[in-house]
Amino acid sequence: MKHTVRAESGRVVVSLEGEIDLDTSPALREVLMAEVEGAAALHVELTGVTYIDSSGIATLVEAFQAARRHGRVFALVAVSEPVGRVLALARLDQVFTILEADGGI
Amino acid sequence: MQDSRHAAAPSELRRIRAGVRRALAEIECNKAVVDDVVLAIDEACQNVIRHAYRGEEGEIRLEIVHQPGRLVVMLADEAPASPPDLLARGRDLEDVRPGGLGTHFIQALMDEISLCSSPSGRGNCLRMVKRLDG
Fold first, then answer.
1. Residue B92, burial from CB neighbour count under 10 angstroms (0-12, 13-18, 19+)
2. Which of A87, B41, B81, B130 has the most crowded Cβ, counting Cβ within 10 A?
3. Which residues of chain B make contact with A50, given a CB cutoff of 8 A?
4. Inter-chain contact B101–A82, Cβ cutoff 8 Å?
């Protein structure tokens, strides 16, 4: 899994690429937890994610809940088809804020 | 179709998934079936790594058999026998919290799940069946 972090318009955007599984989700957790207290909003871009499993979803949930505790906005952006499928399987597609490629819902 | 052994380690999961995709490509399953089986096997392997071997070293044996209209997956380990209700412990999805999703995914993705006799006579064996006709 690769990631980049950029700041724009008062939000931090973490862009992910590759496969998120039990091997790579700890690294994702570190990245998201480091950013969650930062800007007013944290967006996680997922277009480039080709695979995600329950450990990856759990990491997103953990970051979402940490953001909420700190009063931060947390959104998933440009959810790829593999990620969308797994979010729906977990019925979390109705829980997360999901945005189109950085813009509207 | 496939009978392989893997180290029970997170770093092996990517290779396991790729091997399953290669094996399923031989029988021309539709993409949704392939994705379901790959994810279910990944989740079952995670359970073995985390809960059966509890992070200790060990081996996972994966067997996939193509029978008329279905795929039969058997995943065996040599860890101490796990409590028999491990399969029943699903996940209350109303309770949004990290962890516990893997068993729910396996139950949602596969059509039949049961415990089977481990080929080596030791450890645990999980049998999962995916129908190919629907």
1. exposed
2. B41
3. none
4. no
ipTM of this complex prediction, to 2 decimal places: 0.91
Residue of A nearest to B102 (CA): A54
Among A70, A87, A86, A80, which residue's Cα sits nearest to residue A33? Answer: A70
Contact with chain A for residue B14, Cβ under 8 A: yes
B18: CB partners within 8 A, 6+ apart: none
Residues in A touching B13 (Cβ below 8 Å):
21-23
Separation CA B27–CA B22 (nearest Å): 10
pTM for the full predicted model: 0.91
CA distances from A70 to A38, B41, B68 (A): 10, 36, 54
The amino acid at A57: I
Contact B79, B52 (CB under 8 A): yes
pLDDT value at residue B111: 96
The reply to whether B109 touches chain A by the CB within 8 Å rule is yes
- Report which DSSP code applies to A13: E
Instruction: List chain B residues with CB under 8 Å of A58.
Output: 98-99, 101
Chain B within 8 Å of A62 (Cβ-Cβ)?
yes
CB < 8 Å to B107, chain A:
none
pLDDT at B22 over 60: yes
